[in-house]
Amino acid sequence: MAKYIFVTGGVTSSLGKGIIAASLAKLLQSRGLRVTIQKFDPYINVDPGTLNPYEHGECYVTEDGAETDLDLGHYERFLNIYTSQANNVTTGRIYQTVINKEREGAYLGKTVQVVPHITDEIKRRMLELGKTGQYDVVLTEIGGTVGDIESLPFVEAVRQLQWELPEEDTAVVHLTLIPYLKAAKELKTKPTQHSVKMLSQEGVHPDVIVCRTERPLTPDLRRKIGLFCNVKQEAVIEAADAPTIYEVPLAMMREKLDLICLKKLNITDYKEPELTKWKEFLDKLNYPKSKVTIGLIGKYLELQDAYKSILEAFIHAGAVNECQVHVVNVHSEFITDDNVAEKLSGLDGLLVAPGFGHRGVEGKITAVKYARENGLPFFGICLGMQMAVIEFARNVLGLKDAHSTEMNPDTSEPVIDLMDEQKNITAKGGTMRLGAYPCDIKPGTLAYGIYEKETVSERHRHRWEFNNKYLGQFERSGMVASGKNPGSNLVEIMELTNHPFFIGVQYHPELKSTVESPAPLFVHFIAAAKKFDEKKNEAKSALSDALAH
Ligand code: GLN
Known about the structure:
The chain is α/β, with parallel strands linked by helices. 37% of the residues lie in helices and 22% in strands.
């Protein structure tokens, strides 16, 4: 039924394996094949939900509420498909399944071992999506670097699958680095040779070698890599640094990565790549007509990966608006009443990011107040919405002690409170309100103007919520709930009625933004920032005109 492509990585991490895998998947999809893509991660956490973003970047949440690796975000953004729990598997999850089975007695007294029991479970999951009959090709990205102790069982599983399945049902793409040595003025192939050797020692031979490089690979170099690594010269692919990740599918198409894989898999029924929409998006991205500056307030700002989906959603929304979105990091811990105007000067919009814990919260609230009072477009996501609610309660409703019980469990005005279903939960992993929930939108509101729909579905990852006890008070004073969960009445969207653009959402709209369907909230936020910028410039030129006369 389905064919399988495995993508491994050598030499070092951070080579962009996820992007290469997603690009290959995109090309195959553009040729009319039904494609999905999954990631196998060698760490022992059952999922990345409990990982600090500093460790592993953002935790990406799927429709079905799985907390997954951020590469799944790339897969969805590139392919415009939904992934699920089945698309991200860790060593922890594999072991958990095997150990649970052992406890049930399912192994009938056998000694449970890495081979065959762990590798069998890995293989079962590698084939699972392919067996649904929904896909022609399943790409599997193996996390980590070949040669790591942790990735051994995964490579062993690939080896066994290659042996078990017909020759033309599997292909292995190995991504490596060709470093440039400045002093020698040379690209060096030795690390690649070693990493392919290591992979071969583990029993897997690559069909394609994709070489990350800062300089073009000459035909001689390709020949040398091919010869020493025992792959055909045309299967040595150059992956040069690209100005944006969205260029990579086109670069891989020029290198014929897709055709080489199709040939290995003996797939003959495919068409010319259909990438019109993709190219239109790239054109708009590369030739913006205007520019806005957005302040991103969060606490993991040193690490770009921590807010990956938000940054990508800005890129999608910027392209729609033909506007370059310049995102600047604003550290909330250093914002005070005295410096807020200066810290936020020059911004055309403010986004308060999702987050957990009390660090930097007061600075966020101060920034929200500034945006509310100065007509600065404001967009709050999850914790960002909660901050907007607290600010409004304190400074407009006069509830001075207002807070979230996450930060102050003893507050007398818990405007943000733990959801009922969360109150008795103690385990941390996978226990938040996760995944897609419907949200009813109130006609006539800003949210309705943005979505142009009465019901939407967006993804969640939180434990706290707006406390409906206060809703009447908020709405009477100009902050309204424009989106609510139809079943539970949980508030999903809060917005100001007397502000050009001030909206907070309890969910994560960034998670559903893709190249082909950018998130409406981001698109409209950037449009509002553009307007703000235009007005600012008009005011500036009016002032200079006045001074000149
Ligand atoms: N800490 C908040 C909560 O759990 C917000 C979570 C978030 O921003 N993802 O409700």
